[in-house]
Amino acid sequence: xxxxxxxxxRFDRALARLWVLGQMGAxxxxxxxxxxxxxxxxxxxxTGEGFTPKPNWGTWAILGVWDSRDHADEGFERRPFSQWRIxxxxxxxxxxxxxxxxxxxxxxxxxxxxxGAPDGPIAAMTRATVKPARAVRFWRRVPDISARVxxxxxxxxxxxxxxxxxxxxxxxxIWPDAAxxxxxARRGPHAEAIRAVRAEGWFNEELYARFRITGVAGTWQGAxxxxxxxxxxxx
Length: 235
Hints:
The protein has helices at about 15-30, 70-75, 80-85, 135-150, 180-185, 190-200, 225-235; strands at about 5-10, 35-45, 55-65, 90-105, 120-130, 155-165, 170-175, 205-220. By secondary structure, it is α+β, with helices and mostly antiparallel strands. It has one domain: 2-Layer Sandwich (Alpha-Beta Plaits), CATH 3.30.70.100. Strands 1-3-2-6-7-5-8-4 form an eight-stranded antiparallel barrel, surrounded by five helices.
């Protein structure tokens, strides 16, 4: 069964940050040789509430789509994943299984939905290629949306990542359940932005995916992914 992984890496030291910048080129030669890895993307991240035009030079990500969980576990012992873990001051990987997906990323549909939304926490991913002519309008809307996401009491985690600054953008967030995420999407500036996307044609390419979370490895913010750990303890 297909497994999707999102690996986050935090680099605090200046030399390590320079090293990972170089990896944006070098890792592209290693990733195609990793067995069972069918689709991958190397991404930087944004500051503040996550989805912002200002880059965060300390946090980087690798998205992977694998033939199976076993392939993912084996692949993480190989370069570049093993190198990045060693160099990073902190790292964490979320194991995901798509239950809903529509759209394309770089011309392909990378996720194979397995159906059936889970009862508990879900992850949401939105990816878009912004048309250069629409970029100014897009980034006028985004800060308000990001602030609303950050202030929503239901959001457990959020981060903005991207392949190309300002033009190729991804939002990733974790919610307590599908109903909470859907309620946010229907109101406020997010809903207004969706209407503008449709009316004005902001994007060349779009992808919307929802995932059940099947596992977590490593730590983030000093805990075993605090958003999920805190939720489980509260329950």
